[in-house]
């Protein structure tokens, strides 16, 4: 269950950015350099989210807890970046409350999955014959 929560939150996060960011990439009122970096950031966030989902559904689901630090660091960067940017540049944040609530809810699902995964008992090793 924790792996599924992490994977679903990661995929929902990527989807949210794929819906929201393209309007900025094609916005002719933005300088081309800003549009370039917006597209670059979109590609990064989608790649990080896909990697998180694959780590959760692969190694984590099979009981390999060694991937938890990578999931935690990737998740903090991916989900935390939006809120850190809001603090750093409050006048540049999206004006819609729905953006904050949606990304906050997705981050909470991710964090719940991560906490459950950390608290889960490690699998018992079965000796090979």
Write the layout of secondary structure elements.
Layout: H1 2-20, H2 22-25, H3 32-60, H4 68-88, H5 97-119
End-to-end CA span = 30 Å
Strand segment count: 0
Strand content: under 5%
In round numbers, the mean pLDDT is: 92
- Backbone CA Rg: 17 Å
Question: What is the 3D shape?
Answer: elongated
The poorly predicted ranges are none
Helix content: over 70%
Q: How many domain regions?
A: 1
Number of helices: 5
Order of helices and strands: HHHHH
Class by SSE composition: mainly alpha
The main pleated sheet reads as: none
Please sum up the structure shown.
With 129 residues, the chain is mostly helical.
Would you kindly provide a written description of the structure presented here, covering whatever features stand out?
The protein is an all-alpha fold and 129 residues long. It has one domain. It contains five helices and no strands. The protein has helices spanning 2-20, 22-25, 32-60, 68-88, 97-119. Helix 1 runs antiparallel to helix 3 (32-60). The longest helix is centred in the middle third of the chain and has 29 residues, at 32-60.
């Amino acid at each position: 269950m924790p792996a599924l929560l992490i994977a679903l939150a990661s995929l929902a996060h990527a989807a949210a950015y794929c819906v929201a960011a393209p309007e900025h990439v094609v916005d002719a009122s933005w300088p081309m350099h800003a549009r370039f970096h917006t597209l670059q950031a979109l590609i990064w966030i989608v790649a990080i989210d896909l990697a998180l989902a694959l780590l959760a559904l692969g190694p984590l689901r099979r009981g390999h807890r060694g991937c938890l630090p990578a999931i935690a660091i990737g998740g903090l960067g991916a989900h935390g970046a939006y809120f850190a940017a809001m603090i750093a540049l409050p006048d540049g944040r999206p004006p819609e409350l729905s953006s904050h609530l949606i990304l906050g809810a997705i981050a909470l699902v991710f964090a719940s999955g991560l906490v459950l995964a950390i608290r889960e008992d490690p699998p018992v090793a079965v000796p090979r014959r």
